Amino acid sequence: MDLQFRNLRIRNAVASDAPQLTRWWNDGSVMAHAGFPHGLGTTEEEVAGKLAQDREETGRRLILELDGAPVGEMCYRIVEGNKAQIGIKICEAARQEQGYGRIALSLLIRALFDRGVSAVVLDTDLENRRAQHVYASLGFTRLGVRRDCWRNQVGELRSAVDYEIKSGQLVDFTGQGT
Fold first, then answer.
1. Quick count: other Cβ atoms within 10 Å of Cβ 57?
2. Is residue 146 classed exposed, middle or buried when 0-12, 13-18 and 19+ CB atoms within 10 A define those classes?
3. CB 39 within 8 A of CB 47
4. What is the C-alpha separation between 10 and 1, in angstroms, rounded?
5. Using N-to-C axis directions, what is the helix angle for 44-53 and 18-25, rounded to 10°?
6. pTM higher than 0.85, yes or no?
7. Who has the most CB within 10 Å: 49, 65, 108, 132?
8. CA-to-CA distance for 80 and 7, rounded, in angstroms?
């Protein structure tokens, strides 16, 4: 996958991205919202091994670049036949809360719908209000809350909010259509 809108690009993560992904994944400040306040404790070799298993048909990890520099990551995984589960992290704090997430999600979701995906699903931590606001602005439907459904790295019970969007519901922040 290689998607571009102005100075923002989404591309497949490759082995040479393993050092950057490893830094982000091992940084507790980046990974806390995903339940890992101490980071993942992974190695570049482990990350490169995961990247080598990615396939267009089943799912990929993606790099989000701004002006040619990596600022975050995205992913998609095909689930339940023709649904896609997605995720996004703007990992560079200086690039957060500037609208890039909405644009990147618009690009990815539209590309998945263009490939025949019938619906896109995701979840987020109940306390991640910023993400919930972004998903609502894109047209996602809030399916419900799963209370105390998982424990984070330090053993705290966490709750998740499930979302879904179907073709025709996307509010496209690129202005290029749905």
1. 7
2. middle
3. no
4. 7
5. 110
6. yes
7. 108
8. 34
